[in-house]
Design a protein that fits this description.
With 252 residues, this protein is of the alpha/beta class. It is built from 8 helices and 12 strands. Bound molecules: adenosine-5'-triphosphate and magnesium ion.
C-alpha cells in the first residue's frame, strides 16, 4: 500500500543571505503523525520551520515541498497557511493595535469562518480555559507586554483555534514553567486528536508528556543525521549531542 503523505520535503537546501544552513533535508510526514526534531543550537531547526512556512528571510536554494498532494514550493506564507500549515514561533512577535481575539478571528475569516462573534468568543474562552489563560488576555494587543510563557501559550491558542492540518511548534516549551508545559502538552493532545499532524522542535521531553511521537529526527549542521523513535529523546537528554556529532562526521 502506498504510504500516504501530508508533508513531504525533498532534498531541501536553504540559506540566509550568503550562508547555507540547510544542506539537503528530507522529511515525510503522514496524516496524524507527530515528528520531533532535535539538534544542537544553530543546527538549522528554526530555519527548517521557516522554510516550510516560506518566511521570506530564508531562501530555498534547492528542493521541493509537497503539502497535501500539492507542490507548494512557490507558494507564499499566507497561501500555505490557508492550506492548513501553521507555525508557532520560537520568538513570537508583538503586534500593537490588533487584539489576540481579532488576530485569530481574521485568520478564521480568511478561511471562510461563518460562525457569529458570540459563538467564536465562546470557543476562544473554552480554549483559553483549557490552556489556563485568563479570558481578559483575548482583548490585549497580540503579545504586547506578554511574558515569555504567555506568548507561547498564545501561540498554542492560535493553533487550537485555527486547527491546521500540520502545526510546526518551534520550541513552544521554552520559557514555560513546569505546570505550563504540562498544560500546553494537554492542549497539543487535544489538537492532535484525529488526523492533525505536528512537527515539534524541542530540547526537552516534558512537552511530549501527553503525546507519543512517531518519529524523532536529529539535525546537525543542516542535515538530518540520526532518525529513530521516542527513545532518542531520552538518549539526548542523558548523553547530549556529542555522539550525534561523531556519527555525523563518520557519515560526511
Ligand atoms: N536571519 C538570520 N540571519 C543570519 N543568520 C541566521 C538567521 N537565521 C538563522 N541564522 C543562522 O543559521 C544557523 C541556524 O539557525 P537556526 O535558528 O535554524 O538554529 P536552531 O537549530 O533553531 O537553533 P536553536 O536551538 O538555538 O534554536 C545559525 O548559525 C544562525 O545564526
Ligand atoms: Mg531555533
Amino acid at each position: 500500500m502506498e504510504n500516504k503523505s501530508l508533508l513531504k520535503i525533498e532534498n531541501v537546501k536553504a540559506s540566509v543571505g550568503e550562508k547555507q544552513i540547510l544542506r539537503g533535508i528530507n522529511l515525510d510526514i503522514g496524516p496524524g503523525e507527530v515528528h520531533v526534531i532535535m539538534g544542537p543550537n544553530g543546527s538549522g531547526k528554526s530555519t527548517l520551520a521557516n522554510i516550510i512556512m516560506a518566511n521570506p528571510v530564508y531562501t530555498l536554494d534547492e528542493g521541493k515541498i509537497i503539502f497535501d498532494g500539492e507542490d507548494i514550493t512557490d507558494l507564499s506564507t499566507d497561501k500555505r497557511a490557508l492550506k492548513g500549515l501553521f507555525m508557532s514561533f520560537q520568538t513570537p512577535q508583538e503586534v500593537a493595535g490588533i487584539s489576540v481575539e481579532n488576530f485569530i478571528r481574521q485568520g478564521r475569516l480568511a478561511r471562510g469562518e461563518k460562525s457569529s462573534l458570540i459563538k467564536f468568543r465562546k470557543e476562544v474562552d473554552g480554549k483559553m480555559d483549557l490552556l489556563q489563560m485568563k479570558p481578559e488576555y483575548k482583548e490585549r494587543y497580540l503579545n504586547v507586554g506578554f511574558s515569555g510563557g504567555e506568548k507561547k501559550k498564545t501561540e498554542i491558542l492560535q493553533m487550537l483555534m485555527l486547527n491546521p492540518k500540520l502545526a510546526i511548534l518551534d520550541e513552544t516549551d521554552s520559557g514555560l514553567d513546569v505546570d505550563a508545559v504540562r498544560t500546553v502538552s494537554k492542549g497539543l493532545k487535544e489538537y492532535l486528536n484525529g488526523e492533525n499532524s505536528a512537527i515539534i522542535i524541542t530540547h526537552h521531553r516534558e512537552i511530549l508528556k501527553e503525546i507519543q511521537p512517531d518519529y524523532v529526527h536529529v539535525i546537525y549542521n543542516g542535515k538530518i543525521v540520526v532518525e529513530g523513535d521516542d527513545s532518542l529523546v531520552d538518549r539526548i537528554e542523558v548523553e547530549g549531542f556529542n555522539w550525534v556529532k561523531e556519527e555525523a562526521s563518520a557519515n560526511e
